[in-house]
Amino acid sequence: MNNIKYIVYKYSKAYTGNDNIQFDEKDIFIQQIPLDNIFEDTDVTKDVTKEILDLIAMNPEITTSEIAEKLNVVRRTILRKIEILKQNNKLIREGGRKAGKWVIN
Fold first, then answer.
1. Is residue 16 within a helix (H) or strand (E), and if so which, with residue range?
2. pTM of whole model > 0.70?
3. Does residue 4 or residue 63 have the better pLDDT?
């Protein structure tokens, strides 16, 4: 039994109440991923977001590379978290990349 058939078989009764699932070789399966909450923080990453804000509060001129180094995470994680903070109007950047500073709202 291939993986998709196994997964659907295993969980189908929980959703449909029926164990009788029929598959044909030409069946098509579509995975839908909701994007409406794509920028929401999860419980696991809220600590990182709080630490980012704490570091910015201590040094508004800190760079994303410095934040990543201090938190021991990749810079892309910091950029993603900062984008979430910006979209939620909790953080803005005044000035340019080199001479600018962060402002916490």
1. helix 3-16
2. no
3. 63
